[in-house]
Amino acid sequence: MNIIVTNKLAGRLMEADGEPVSGQQLADEFGISRTAVWKHIKDLQEKGYEISSIKKKGYTLTGIPDSLEAAAIQPLLKTVRYGKTLEYLSSCESTQIIAHQLAQQLVPDGTVVLSEEQTAGRGRMARKWDSAHGKGIWMSIILRPDIPLQRAPQFTLIAAVSVVRAIEEVTGLNPDIKWPNDILLNGKKCTGILTELQSDADGIQALIIGIGLNANQEMEDFSDEVKDIATSLKLKKGSPVSRQELVRSILYYLELYTAIYIDEGFAAIKLMWEGYSTTIGKPVRARMAKETLEGIAESITDEGVLQIRTPDGKLHGIYSADIEMKN
Ligand code: BTN
Prior knowledge:
This protein has 327 residues and is of the alpha+beta class. The protein is 31% helix and 26% strand.
């Protein structure tokens, strides 16, 4: 059984949006026999796709499994490039590791790695990232922007506004962003973003944008270390959210905002980021490796550097820190 045909057939039924498609029509479109169509349908049903078959009308898709495999994501993707090459794993150490390996094999801009679970998910500052099986979105996206190395951090902010837009669109929730890229719901973190880089003397070879989105966890799915500071979209909304729609929407906005950024520069993205930010204009405590600063978070620079004004009137540029909001 050709898996590519099976996946395309699933896509064809998804695009039919609940309308029946006859076996003969599918056979003609795919250039296979009706018996072969039936075998692909059986294969899909075994994978968890709910497909009803009504005599003289055809096959209707009534439900799809909650999986992030290419067959479930790609048919309804609204992007031109992002997600068109998609590596799906049921488990891996970290999608960042796989993405770094793929990036060296010259995979195209917008290649996506998705895994149902990570056994060694990593966060910023060498922290670990809880990645329970099937509950969240553990995704790394390989981008190959033609920009100077020093502009790379701006992509973390592009990714943050893309994720916030996607969460708003798919769930109706209104998250905000804590500098640099924590996405929060009522002050608790529902998404983290980790941007890594491959570069050489010619500049950026690949940006690896890792997104960890807590979608459908219950409180007990979080480890004791993060229980008090983490949340999921399901916990906030009170009902499960569609991981598939979220992935498609994140990729859509990431592609759109990247195009705006390349055409028009960082100003439009910065404006959106500031609109979603809980940090700007507020008193904060910034914990860095060697010191802690307290002051007002005044702005971010075009490089994404946070500017904190301390009580002595000095302005400090913060490149990397844990930010605590002071009330
Ligand atoms: C943070 O510390 O806030 C960033 C967390 C990033 C987690 C994501 S999950 C997908 C990708 N793979 C990883 O190992 N980390 C990132």
